Amino acid sequence: MKTLNNLFNNSLAMVAIAAVSITASLCLTSCQQDDELNNIENKVEKNSIATLTFAGKVADVDSYGMLVPSFTPKELIDAGFEYSDLLDVKIGDKISLHNVPFVTGFNEVGVLETCLCDYNAQGKMYGFGLLHGNFSERIGGKPGDKIEISLAKHHGYEDTWKVMKSIYTPNRNDYLSDEVFANFRQVRTSGMGDGVLYRSSNPLNPKDNEVRYAYVDRLAKAAGINTEIDLADTMEKIGKYRETEGFASTYCPNLVDAGNTIALGLTADVYSTTFMKKMGDGLRFMVNHKPPYLVHCNEGKDRCGFVIILLESLAGATYQEVADDYMQTLINFYKIQKGDASYTLRKSLSVDRLVWLLENVSAVDDYTNIDWTGKDPASVNLQKAAHDYVIKCGLTEDECMRLQKILQGR
Which residue, 278, 221, 283, is CA-closest to 251? Predict the structure, then answer.
């Protein structure tokens, strides 16, 4: 009887072990199936990201030479694309671009690099741009051309974008002073006469410079500005600004009426013959009008940044002074700090390239093949480079010398 009981108990134990084994096997199979399902889902997700595509066309070419697409930033984002993605782009039948960053500011790429920009992440200014270059002239594209976008690498530009992100607010309370908010300051580099040259954002444009413009106007009055060099606007645009309801500027419009403002309507391509010819008109206007001068574009950042480098260099500034003054604008707008990662990278990709190219203007003709490694902006003879650029702009040697003396306060 005891033996039967033992057999019975052993049988129960074997059944229990078998049951556990079967359960474990079923559990393992289930887990494997779940893992396989997850892998499949991940593959589908990765594949769907990898094969993201979007199509549209060129709706317009703006005054900067930027290609404005027919679709909005929201449509692109709703389709699955994200800021910092790298894109492959085809425009028309001939243009094929690879690894174009999708960013929120043109200053998030280097000088003479392309991007697809949703400016300030607001969709107000949006398109394919070439920093300090004219996209439509140097790369191509015209209204009606088909645009095909595909994802090259999801967040492939993320590390750089996080450091270079260029979003700012139009709220005065977010800035330390009226001057910082307006990006208004006197240029005080070596060789520059006291009270001769000022730089700022736009004192006339309530559209692209929002509430800042009225602050600039008041600061221009306080500085006693006599002559305004408007790099961004035409006289027609200024007339439309002044008709805007609630237009708040009073001092700079008086300079316009007195014939002491020149409106150059420049693109951002500071090395093109068109830019240089118009810039020559602006420099000659300075020679024939009294300081203090106010030089500005819309934000006082890119076009203005280059022109101020030119004038500082002509007067006798050092490389370090030129770099510090250029970077102060980016500190004002983006609240970066001197020496941090953003400051260092921006300086390398922006001001250092501009300084080197001031002495090597012809290199821009083959800009896609410039190897930026080893280029030393501190070795540039700034004053000679500025002189040569001014002569290329069409000024005579006498006009160039007169401009230099005026800037130096002589």
Answer: 221
DSSP H or E run through 296: strand 293-296
Cβ–Cβ under 8 Å, residues 305 and 329: yes
CA 375, 378, 379, 382: dihedral to nearest 10 degrees? 110
Residue 118: alpha-carbon gap to chain centroid = 10
* pTM of the shown model: 0.86
Beta strand pairing status for 227-230 and 293-296?
parallel
- What are the 10-residue block averages of pLDDT along the chain, 410 residues in total? 40 40 41 44 42 94 93 93 97 97 95 95 85 95 97 97 93 97 98 98 95 98 98 97 97 98 95 96 98 97 97 98 98 94 96 97 94 95 98 98 97
State the CB neighbour count (10 A cutoff) for residue 63: 13
What DSSP assignment string belongs to 236-262? HHHHHHHTSTT----HHHHHHHTT-EE
CA neighbor of 293 nearest in space, from 272, 277, 310? 310
- Listed in sequence order, the residues at least 6 apart from 196 whose beta carbon sits closer than 8 Å to its beta carbon are 187, 291, 292, 293, 406, 407, 408, 409
pLDDT of 123: 80
CA separation for the pair 352, 65 (Å, rounded): 24
Give, in degrees to the nearest 5, the angle at Cα 150 between 147 and 154: 140
Q: Which residues contact 281 (CB under 8 A, 6 or more apart)?
A: 262, 264
* Structure-token match 């118009």, residue found: 278
| 122 alpha carbon, distance to own chain's centre | 14
Structure tokens at 52: 């993201």
Task: State residue 80's pLDDT score.
Answer: 96
Element (H, E) at 118: strand 114-118
Distance, in Å, from the CA atom of 170 to the CA atom of 215, rounded to the nearest integer, reads 12
Contact 349, 111 (CB under 8 A): yes
Give backbone dihedrals phi and psi of 118, rounded to 5 degrees, phi first: -100, 90
Query: Residue 347 in 3-state DSSP?
Result: helix
Cα separation, 364 vs 284, whole angstroms: 25
Continuous H helices in 55-182: 73-78, 135-138, 158-164, 178-182
Can you tell me whether residue 277 is helix, strand or coil? helix
